[in-house]
């Protein structure tokens, strides 16, 4: 059976949802499976013409007895179970907005200015990754809120979202939390958050924003790091990327190799109330051209930093942070969270909460066949070769890989052995229109999903034809 069987996936995520009625839970599982099978489509389209399914799905989405929190918590608990088997886990935290302009918008919160037509939710998510491969384990926490038009009407400071995320993670993960490293961008460089993590003996890598005062030095943190001896250096590939400059004008960042100097320090941060010992890794690009802003990372961490290998591991941990941004894109675009249309906020929140886990599934579909590329970049060549050479039946069922082979037959295939996972990835990417114009060898998740969606349409027709042939309806 394919690991992406939607019925099995939905049951694993939602069978323990506390909906108050086993029939509601069954309907939740069926609705989520249909939505996953037709990722990015409306609920009506996901029911594929079945009036009974459509009526049942909308009855669930409009049922105030099924809270969005119950739906999400069921998925979080499934992630917590999966996390128990990993020796090192990265918990990636970040915030995004969900934007809507249809009827429900007036009942949601401010995203930009008060006059903006688009309104919606702010959502802070925590994504768990395998620390070895950076494979996505699942979603462990989300905090949803509507921002009031008047900041004085806010119930609490939004900066509390970082500590809240850690609180709920430790509740759900229990003893597993000792193997978790929280990874956050500059917004999390808040004294109270760092103190909260250290008071619970929890691990973290946080990119520094503030040039704080430190004990036993007249220099502030950033200048103090500049004065330290170089521990070593390393080279990183910077991919081509479309960006915007400070004025919002589109610019193209060309691909390049960047050499970075690495320095480290164990310092004590000074604040009004406390002294806070912390390790710091400083990586500064030394090869940037004058027209390019050089890379510079100042990373606050609890991880050891005495050797170059340990410092590079901290940097490697932080580079996994982009995965949560990929999740936001998969959630909003691939799973269609911002295309859902409901008249009531709670109904919309129920549908979009299901979409969050569908977004995770889209990432996992891509990763199941691209993880070897990331392992190779980390120097883990043997592990990458082992994964690439394994049978594609670890991802595809027999009908799927045989149909894919019919369209993209492997060169030199002997007609007996099941093709490799590497062949399956390349073939599926080509089916989705991948041409590798950037010469990275890695297709985007949108391309992979396009190929997967196309393949599934062929599989449905093939299976119907087999049934008709077995029943004698085809000559």
TrEMBL record:
Domain (Transposase Tn5-like N-terminal): residue spans on this chain: 7-66
Query: Which residue windows does the record flag with biased composition (Basic and acidic residues)?
Result: 9-22
**What lineage does UniProt assign to this protein's organism?**
Bacteria, Pseudomonadati, Pseudomonadota, Gammaproteobacteria, Alteromonadales
Native source organism of the sequence: Parashewanella curva
Biological process according to GO: DNA transposition
Name of this chain's protein = IS4 family transposase
Q: What Gene Ontology molecular function terms does this protein carry?
A: DNA binding; transposase activity
Residues covered by region (Disordered)? 1-22
Q: Where is the Transposase IS4-like domain?
A: 184-357
Q: Which residues form the signal peptide?
A: none
């Amino acid at each position: 059976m394919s690991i992406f069987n939607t019925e099995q996936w939905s049951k694993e995520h939602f069978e323990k949802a506390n909906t108050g009625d086993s029939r509601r839970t069954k309907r939740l599982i069926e609705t989520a499976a249909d939505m996953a099978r037709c990722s990015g489509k409306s609920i009506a389209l996901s029911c594929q013409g079945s009036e009974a399914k459509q009526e049942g799905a909308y009855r669930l989405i409009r049922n105030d007895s099924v809270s969005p929190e119950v739906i999400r918590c069921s998925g979080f608990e499934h992630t917590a179970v999966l996390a128990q088997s990993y020796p090192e886990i990265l918990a990636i935290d970040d915030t995004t907005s969900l934007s809507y302009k249809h009827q429900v918008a007036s009942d949601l919160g401010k995203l930009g200015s008060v006059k903006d037509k688009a309104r919606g939710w702010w959502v802070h998510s925590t994504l768990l990754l395998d620390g070895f491969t950076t494979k996505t384990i699942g979603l462990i926490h989300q905090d949803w809120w509507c921002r009031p038009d008047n900041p004085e009407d806010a119930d609490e400071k939004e900066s509390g979202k970082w500590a809240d995320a850690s609180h709920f993670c430790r509740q759900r993960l229990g003893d597993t939390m000792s193997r978790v490293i929280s990874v956050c961008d500059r917004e999390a460089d808040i004294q109270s958050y760092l103190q909260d993590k250290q008071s619970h003996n929890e691990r973290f890598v946080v990119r520094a924003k503030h040039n704080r005062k430190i004990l036993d030095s007249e220099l502030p943190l950033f200048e103090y790091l500049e004065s330290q001896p170089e521990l070593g250096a390393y080279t990183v590939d910077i991919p081509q990327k479309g960006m915007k400059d400070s004025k919002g004008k589109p610019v193209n960042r060309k691909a390049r190799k960047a050499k970075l100097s690495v320095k480290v320090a164990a310092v004590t941060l000074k604040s009004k109330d406390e002294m806070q010992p912390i390790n710091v890794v400083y990586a500064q690009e030394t090869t940037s051209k004058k027209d390019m802003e050089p890379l510079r990372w100042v990373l606050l961490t609890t991880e050891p930093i005495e050797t170059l290998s340990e410092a590079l591991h901290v940097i490697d941990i932080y580079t996994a942070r982009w995965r949560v941004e990929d999740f936001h894109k998969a959630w909003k675009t691939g799973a269609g969270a911002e295309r859902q249309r409901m008249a009531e906020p709670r109904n919309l929140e129920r549908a979009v909460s299901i979409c969050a886990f569908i977004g995770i599934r889209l990432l996992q579909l891509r990763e199941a066949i691209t993880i070897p590329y990331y392992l190779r970049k980390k120097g883990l060549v043997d592990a990458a070769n082992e994964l690439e050479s394994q049978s594609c039946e670890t991802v595809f069922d027999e009908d799927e890989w045989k149909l894919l082979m019919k369209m993209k037959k492997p060169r030199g295939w002997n007609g007996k052995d099941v093709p490799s996972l590497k062949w399956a990835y390349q073939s599926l990417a080509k089916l989705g229109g991948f041409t590798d114009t950037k010469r990275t060898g890695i297709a985007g998740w949108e391309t992979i999903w396009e190929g997967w969606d196309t393949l599934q349409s062929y599989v449905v027709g093939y299976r119907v034809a087999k049934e008709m042939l077995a029943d004698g309806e085809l000559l």
